[in-house]
Hints:
This is Aminopeptidase. Its cofactor is Mg(2+); Co(2+); Zn(2+). By secondary structure, the chain is of the alpha+beta class. It contains 13 helices and 20 strands. Helix 1 (2-18) runs parallel beside helix 9 and helix 7 crosses helix 8.
Amino acid sequence: xxxxxxxxxxxxxxxxxxxxxxxxxxxxxxxxxxxxxxxxxxxxxxxxxxxxxxxxxxxxxxxxxxxxxxxxxxxxxxxxxxxxxxxxxxxxxxxxxxxxxxxxxxxxxxxxxxxxxxxxxxxxxxxxxxxxxxxxxxxxxxxxxxxxxxxxxxxxxxxxxxxxxxxxxxxxxxxxxxxxxxxxxxxxxxxxxxxxxxxxxxxxxxxxxxxxxxxxxxxxxxxxxxxxxxxxxxxxxxxxxxxxxxxxxxxxxxxxxxxxxxxxxxxxxxxxxxxxxxxxxxxxxxxxxxxxxxxxxxxxxxxxxxxxxxxxxxxxxxxxxxxxxxxxxxxxxxxxxxxxxxxxxxxxxxxxxxxxxxxxxxxxxxxxxxxxxxxxxxxxxxxxxxxxxxxxxxxxxxxxxxxxxxxxxxxx
Length: 412
């Protein structure tokens, strides 16, 4: 009974707070086949919230792994016409999208980075016009998590698969503010209001740059786009002016860097799992906005494939602030899943910028966007740099320095 109650609460949270489900909305869900039990709850609750229709796209990482290993790079670089047409139809019909993450973080460990790059790069290029409908917030989207036995076992290797999965569910509910006795939707309304207050406070400073320092060796100055906006938690769907929450959970406040004005070096504070492959103990060195040097003790080839995606992957598209004392950080767990790990640590992102982090983004020409340092790329990959001793200083247009973070936490 408790299991059913908690899954129902979680499904309701995704439906109400995540995509703000309504009677005029079609929805599609992307999920691993091992998530079928929870997906059934989610579909049930979406219909209970009056969704017009719900479709589910299942995938199987083991089958996908075989395809990635056995097919040629030429074949992997092709995108079927039916897949493009499906995305076009869904965006034309204003579908909301729910993505459930939680597959084995190391599922594609044995697959060459060149095969993964061939598959993902071409798809990103061909499907970008439709994916941009979500990343630009024209349509509602939400990324949430659902444990699978393989993921749970990676996070809790000392437990049996069954115990690990139960423990991971417990931690996800905790991170998402779900308890047997509470109303998670109201909890999230309060949490969103608190994050928005902090974003408003940052916006009043109009910083031109942030300077990061910590004992790992990070010494990085990140210029900020001249009309940047600090954003938190909620976004507004352009299609119908309704709010939605793209990430559940979320603890971050984020904005747009100036991709032409980034200098120094930064070191990762947590491992990064990217498309089923692990990257750890890595660094980036920037000069005049571009990555000029990088390295990794684990997963160098995968890191190289990210950096070499296109011109935009040589710079940053996001700067996000998360206090070291955030609820997810205090769990002291490396989830090996960016949705959670990025909400336990200050982070940056290689690649594409988010339009919502720039004032009047839609009114700018492509030339103006580039000149202003608004990054454009086929990829967007978050990596964590936050530590217990992280210092962040905000620099204003008149040269004043304001301590934003001290010892890993906000001081403003």
